Structure formats: structure tokens, C-alpha cells
Amino acid sequence: IGGGGLVLLGFAVMFGLPVAEGLPLALAVNVTNALAGCVRHARAGRVLWPDVGRMIPAAVVGIALGAVLALWIPPDGLRIVFAAFFMFMAIRVARQGMRQ
Questions:
Q1: How large is the average pLDDT for residues 91-98?
Q2: CA 100 – CA 97 distance, rounded (Å)
Q3: Which of 8, 14, 20, 95 is the most buried (most CB within 10 A)?
Q4: What percent of the chain is modeled with pLDDT above 90?
């Protein structure tokens, strides 16, 4: 789970924003941080540009699909989807930590 998930949670808890309204704001924060990190890694020569090129089509499809689903799923349903995803990721991270 990236920082965007925590930002989204913060918007919901601190400002009472519904997930559908907080998501674009969290993404804006995340994009800003990601761009800064990307520039730094690119300058250091640590970006595998051929891999980036291969990921772009999947990212575009995921962005479009996510935008459409966010419009179709009611706020309570979106909240449940995010909660389930966060639980899945928390369990996955915990299991990986126990193996190490």
C-alpha cells in the first residue's frame, strides 16, 4: 500500500470526505511525490526505461477502468472495495514479514 492510501484515509477521517471525493486529491498528492522520486532516480540512472515502456499500456487501461468503476460504484460500495483491498494487502505484507 502506497502513501496514497494513507492520504485517502486521512482525508476521510480528518475532513469527512467521501472516498469518491478524496481519491482524486490523494492521487494528486501521490503523483507529485512520484514525479519528484522519478526525476531523482532517473538522474541517478536507476530507471529501467524499457520496463517503463512495457508498463504504460497496463497503467492506461487500469486508470481508465478505475475511473469508470469509481463513477459506477456508490460511495459505500467504494468504501467496502477499498477496505477489502487494504485488508488483503495488510495480510499479504504481514505474511511476507513473518517469512523473513
A1: 93
A2: 5
A3: 8
A4: 52
Please report the sign of the dihedral spanned by the C-alpha atoms of residue 44, residue 47, residue 49, residue 53: negative
C-alpha cell at 84: 477489502
CB 5 within 8 A of CB 86: yes
For residues 22 and 11, is the Cβ–Cβ distance under 8 A?
Answer: yes
Lowest-confidence range among 36-40, 47-51, 79-83? 79-83
> How distant is the alpha carbon of residue 61 from its chain centre?
15
What's the rounded Cα separation, in Å, for the pair 90 and 25? 23
Cα separation of 35 and 88, whole Å?
27
d(CA 3, CA 11): 12
pLDDT tens-digit readout, 51-84: 999 999 999 999 999 889 888 999 889 889 889 9
Domain of residue 53 covers 3-99
* Those residues with Cβ within 8 angstroms of residue 22's Cβ, 6 or more apart along the chain or in another chain: 8, 11, 12, 15
